[in-house]
Write a structure and sequence with these properties.
Elements lengths: L18 H21 L7 H26 L5 H23 L5 H23 L3 H22 L9 H5 L7 H30 L1 H6 L4 H23 L6 H11 L5 H26 L3 H25 L14 H7 L1
Helix pairs in contact: 1-2, 2-7, 2-9, 2-10, 2-11, 3-4, 3-5, 3-9, 4-5, 4-9, 7-9, 7-13, 10-11, 10-12, 11-12
Subcellular location: Membrane
Membrane topology: Multi-pass membrane protein
Protein name: Metal ABC transporter permease
């Protein structure tokens, strides 16, 4: 593994734009400090843990929210493809900082590169009529190749520890990167709130959505762009290698016990938050990598959900729905 010197993650010229988010981070830190005094919990006494917990809570909402649409569209692997291109975006940011002293956060370049890659996935599928998994494989390979090439060039003394981007790290969640995550969180929640009905219709019946006049291509592009934002946001503590798990595993667990699309979203958010909070706590006290612990806990919760679903079936309750078979009446009702 290549080790490079750490470049500060600063938003620089974008600081005025993120001003309200920095204010919110201060308020959140004061709240967590008060919680530390009230509970005596050691992990709540440190500023980096305040930011890590806030980032984790946001990931626990936005990852399963977008993941529910992806899983039911059989696009579960797109998170992996975009995570590898986000790694290329980090490498681009580090490269530019080293060569021309741009002073930009690598997470911002990761957002830009991941969103461009997300559009390429859709454009390749549209232009070549190839299946989505083909375009995802091409983009994944290209992104990771670009990232490893830029790092190996080592131009201008480019030197950054890439482990924090590959595996995530609680202690590296700075104010700047937390502010970027909060901005992405607001955009994602806002976009889903505005386009929820259309995305739901396209998810369950593209043909009917197209016949009804919806621009399926544009809503597909919106979905992959939102996925790219989630991937970059979650990459801070999950790492490139494990970030896709939060898009899929909680949703897979929720689908075992849910009977509607809305219920699936709510249950998957609860399961994701449970995995994130427990994972951050366990990784802090066990001094383990947070991303790995969170994913292991999410998988354990998924197994428990599968067992619970089987028990419901054995006890004569409704049969556990298969992936993609969640009640589609919501989509049709929303279109009406």
């Amino acid at each position: 593994m290549t080790y490079l010197s750490v470049v500060p993650l600063q938003a620089g010229p974008l600081d005025p734009v993120f001003g309200p988010l920095y204010w919110f981070l201060e308020v959140w830190s004061d709240f967590m400090s008060a919680m530390a005094r009230a509970t005596g919990l050691e992990l709540l006494q440190y500023g980096f843990m305040h930011r890590a917990i806030l980032v984790g809570l946001c990931i626990g909402v936005m990852a399963p929210l977008i993941g529910t649409f992806l899983v039911h569209r059989q696009l579960a692997l797109i998170g992996d493809a975009l995570a590898h291109t986000a790694f290329a975006g980090v490498a681009v940011g580090l490269f530019l900082n080293a060569v021309i002293d741009l002073g930009i956060s690598p997470y911002l370049t990761a957002v830009v590169v991941a969103m461009i890659a997300a559009l390429f996935i859709e454009l390749i599928s549209e232009a070549t009529d190839a299946y989505n998994d083909v375009s995802m494989a091409i983009v994944l390979s290209t992104g990771f190749a670009l990232g490893t090439t830029l790092i190996s060039i080592n131009a201008g003394g480019l030197a950054v520890g890439v482990n924090q981007y590959l595996f995530g790290n609680l202690s590296t969640v700075s104010n700047d990167s937390a502010a970027i995550l909060l901005a992405l969180f607001v955009i994602i929640i806002g976009m889903v709130a505005l386009t929820r009905n259309q995305l739901l219709y396209v998810t369950f019946d593209e043909t009917a959505a197209a016949v009804s006049g919806l621009s399926v291509r544009w809503y597909n592009r919106i979905m992959v762009l939102l996925t790219a934002m989630v991937v970059v946001g979650a990459m801070q503590i999950m790492g490139v290698i494990l970030v896709a798990a939060m898009l899929v595993v909680p949703v897979a667990g929720a689908s075992q016990v849910s009977r509607s699309f809305n219920e699936s979203i709510l249950v998957s958010v609860v399961l994701a938050e449970l995995a994130v909070i427990l994972g951050i706590g366990v990784s802090y006290y066990a001094e383990a990598t947070a991303g790995g612990v969170i994913v292991l806990l999410a998988v354990a919760i998924y197994v428990a959900a599968v067992v619970l679903g089987k028990l419901q079936t054995a006890l004569g309750e409704e049969t556990t729905p298969e992936m993609g078979s969640i009640d589609v009446s919501e989509a049709k009702q929303s279109d009406d």
